[in-house]
Amino acid sequence: xxxxxxxxxxxxxxxxxxxxxxxxxxxxxxxxxxxxxxxxxxxxxxxxxxxxxxxxxxxxxxxxxxxxxxxxxxxxxxxxxxxxxxxxxxxxxxxxxxxxxxxxxxxxxxxxxxxxxxxxxxxxxxxxxxxxxxxxxxxxxxxxxxxxxxxxxxxxxxxxxxxxxxxxxxxxxxxxxxxxxxxx
Length: 184
Known about the structure:
Order of helices and strands: HEEEEEEEHEEH
Number of domains: 1
Distance between the termini: 63 Å
Structural class: alpha+beta
Mean pLDDT: 77
Radius of gyration: 17 Å
Low-confidence stretches: 1-10
Number of strands: 9
Strand content: 35-45%
Number of helices: 3
């Protein structure tokens, strides 16, 4: 095999579902957009609190951002409902997301407290900018493959286009309207 063939083959690589089981299939999970005072996009079971992945407009306190030198212009907090084994509260860790056969994107997360009902649970949290290319990839893709703390799973992206685009647009509008106009 030539190097050119090796490069071509790697571009066509797509993880196999056997290695990345569908995390939401058994629960009929879907992508939905909501704006009840706080724009959010959720991948979860309709009309339940069973959520796999959620992005909310704004920054959750004490969660690091992807680039600590520059604060996100349009901060978005993401929470992934994934079991972690060797992580403790506030630990930072890296994980990857690959959409379809595209390049994987490395992200920096932190194990943060999330309140569900009256209980606190520790789940992977991250802060992204709403301009992060991941949102466009998720909106236009068919499947996302995730690796977090040794866990491998995939998420169906069918129906993600409109909810994600509505969310990004609403988040940018909300943050832009909250920024005071600069004096002339």
